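User: Show me an example of a complex going from sequences to structure tokens.

Assistant: Sure. Here are the input components:
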Amino acid sequence: NAGVTQTPKFRVLKTGQSMTLLCAQDMNHEYMYWYRQDPGMGLRLIHYSVGEGTTAKGEVPDGYNVSRLKKQNFLLGLESAAPSQTSVYFCASRGSYNEQFFGPGTRLTVL
Amino acid sequence: GDSVTQMEGPVTLSEEAFLTINCTYTATGYPSLFWYVQYPGEGLQLLLKATKADDKGSNKGFEATYRKETTSFHLEKGSVQVSDSAVYFCALGNSGYSTLTFGKGTMLLVSP
């Protein structure tokens, strides 16, 4: 039981490049989430999904898109990366008591 | 809306000292409450939870009691270790919402 996994672990992009972050969970959870974490800012919710084929905006959705084509996967896309998107990105899925289980994170640097 | 307030850090303690990290909340209804821990370079791990008033969550020597009358969920440990150095997040989950509300986190530094 791997829990929540994220790929890649690290990535460096140039301004304007695009990339997709992949999150996978094997706990059959309906709800999944993408957060970013920046120094002094805590966790901020980007987008989330309440089930396969659904997505919703969180606190800081601008510059990101998401897709949930399969229940176990939740993809976060950056169409045109900006230095302000340099951050650590965490994916999570929700259990039976509203608790969330987090992945190990992706460290993204945009030059 | 819902909110969580944690004490600001860093909290600096010597090994074997008693730890308290304060957490208070505002919420409608009857939320579930959580403490998460984040070690350097890692993701958040669920440390403990309480799903109703007067519940006590416990794990790895840490405890927190859901106090509805004071809207609090303070984290305590009787004797901290250097390995407990991490950032601790208090969070609230309300059944009326799809998301969690997190506090800003409290850094704990334990010296030998």
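The lines above are the inputs; the final block is the predicted structure for all two components together. Chain A has a mean pLDDT of 95.
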